[in-house]
Amino acid sequence: MADPINSAELLKLVQEKQIIAIQRIENKAVKAATEKRFKAIDDAIGSATSNWVKAFGSMSADGTGAPLTDMIRAALSSSNSALKGLEGSVIGALTEAVGAAVTTAQAQGAAFVEGASGKAAAKRVAVPAVSLKEERAAVKAAAADGLKESRALLRKPVVERLGLRGILGGLRRARNALSRAKSTITTSVNENVTKTMRATATANKAKYEVWVAERDACVNCLKYAGQIVKKGEDWTGGQSWDPNQVDKNAPGVRPPLHPHCRCRPVPWDPAWAKPGEVSLPEAISREAERSVARGFSLASESNASRVRALKELLSGSPSLPKTVLERAQRDLRRGEFARGRAVP
């Protein structure tokens, strides 16, 4: 076998290439199961708003008569159509996605072990059997809740009282159900990747696992990045770079930490670290600190949370280059990230 690859290349392999490959599988399943349904609801929301203004003069006007009845009927039809057959669509797409993710994760695990150790990876990995029973129940419940909540709002007395807000509220309840189904897909894919990585650790006699997070992960996931536990054990729960989100009473956790989380554990053996060089866990931790310092994050995460995380980071002794540290200190004084929060 070739020599082990250095920690920078190993980090790029697991944090970018391998996560991106799984993300493509995940996105394909989400698109197949929910894209047209989301579009139908969004189109219905747009049409309802436009038709309301045409019929009653403004978005804040009261609605009455036949136009109101027609709008309620159209909104109910759109909600029912968007959620009809959702369980079958999701489980069909998820069955294919999980199979592809597990197969891909097996290859990724072998590539990682060989890159980290310089030795041939175990040929046999006892991956746990895949069961989508919980996912099926979750999607079924989401669809049922969405229909029930939509119908509760899309009743004439309710819409007469709430106006356009009642129509839009009913449609948005259906959209929320689709979002729950989408979360079920992403979580299931990544949970099965995690199981495969644990099995990879077992097959290759790795005694430990290290937490890998995306560069724009949330402040909670970034706190775990680089942390090591004994194989199969949980990480201490409730950790976060944002002091407001720390929960000292939380139970232990394993990735994925939340819906849409793409964190993963990878096998680790201290013997794989090269003498005199930064180890992979150290490299992951340093990259997480840099992400906090730069504010790398999705738009869904509040700026206030990222600033609190930055303050917490700078209160310690972060392993940051001088230029990154100086910029982070300026951003903290400013209360915002001057270069934006997106990963360059």
Structure, described:
This protein is mainly alpha-helical and 344 residues long. It has two domains: 7-205, no CATH class; 206-344, no CATH class. 62% of the residues lie in helices and 4% in strands. It has ten helices and three strands. Helix 1 runs antiparallel to helix 2 and helix 3 packs across helix 4 (133-153).
Task: Lay out the secondary structure.
Blueprint lengths: L6 H50 L8 H19 L2 H32 L15 H21 L2 H7 L1 H40 L4 E5 L6 H6 L3 E3 L33 E5 L11 H15 L8 H12 L7 H13 L10
Antiparallel strand pairs: 1-2, 1-3
Counted by DSSP, the helix tally is 10
Fraction of residues in H or I helices: 55-70%
Strand content: under 5%
Element pattern in H and E? HHHHHHEHEEHHH
- Alpha-carbon distance between the termini? 35 Å
Whole-angstrom Rg: 24 Å
* Shape descriptor: globular
Largest sheet composition: 3 strands, antiparallel
Task: Briefly summarize what is shown.
The chain is mainly alpha-helical and 344 residues long.
Characteristic key phrases:
single chain, 344 residues, mainly alpha, 3-stranded antiparallel β-sheet, globular
